[in-house]
Amino acid sequence: MPATITVPEGWAWVGAALLSTQFLLLGQTTIVGRRRRAAGIQYPQLYAEKAQEEASKEAKIFNCAQRAHQNTLENIPVIYTSTLLTAVYYPTIAAAACGTWVLGRILYTRGYITGDPANRNAKGGFIGSIAQLALLIGSVTGVYKMIQASL
């Protein structure tokens, strides 16, 4: 049975915000590759071993870059889902929160790749968590409205 989907005004901004996550991931992938080469860590080794990390600042920075990237990959399904669910009723909020999350992830990564994991949130990376919370609230509210409308 065919169906027509009408998206709310402002949906293009949601698309732009979601697209920005691709550039975030591409940037993080590039950073990890550069840090891997600088540390001399060969594939398929996922992380530098503790002894490698202790012997080389570059190995420590590689581990931090790799962890920042993996943490983003762990969170991205939640971001996609919550952004889309929020956008059903609140596209501008969804786009702004997703874009803010991306900015937070950039700051998180920049802090993390200093080689000191404590810096991952010290340089503004925490704003990504605030944006993610906003998306959670927006998606719960949106789903509640959808359920309520179907009753």
From TrEMBL:
<dbReference type="GO" id="GO:0005783">
    <property type="term" value="C:endoplasmic reticulum"/>
</dbReference>
<keyword id="KW-0812">Transmembrane</keyword>
<keyword id="KW-0472">Membrane</keyword>
<protein>
    <recommendedName>
        <fullName>Membrane-associated proteins in eicosanoid and glutathione metabolism</fullName>
    </recommendedName>
</protein>
<keyword id="KW-1133">Transmembrane helix</keyword>
<feature type="transmembrane region" description="Helical">
    <location>
        <begin position="124"/>
        <end position="144"/>
    </location>
</feature>
<dbReference type="GO" id="GO:0004364">
    <property type="term" value="F:glutathione transferase activity"/>
</dbReference>
<dbReference type="InterPro" id="IPR050997">
    <property type="entry name" value="MAPEG"/>
</dbReference>
<feature type="transmembrane region" description="Helical">
    <location>
        <begin position="12"/>
        <end position="32"/>
    </location>
</feature>
<dbReference type="GO" id="GO:0016020">
    <property type="term" value="C:membrane"/>
</dbReference>
<feature type="transmembrane region" description="Helical">
    <location>
        <begin position="78"/>
        <end position="104"/>
    </location>
</feature>
<dbReference type="InterPro" id="IPR001129">
    <property type="entry name" value="Membr-assoc_MAPEG"/>
</dbReference>
<dbReference type="Pfam" id="PF01124">
    <property type="entry name" value="MAPEG"/>
</dbReference>
<dbReference type="InterPro" id="IPR023352">
    <property type="entry name" value="MAPEG-like_dom_sf"/>
</dbReference>
<dbReference type="GO" id="GO:0005635">
    <property type="term" value="C:nuclear envelope"/>
</dbReference>
<dbReference type="GO" id="GO:0004602">
    <property type="term" value="F:glutathione peroxidase activity"/>
</dbReference>
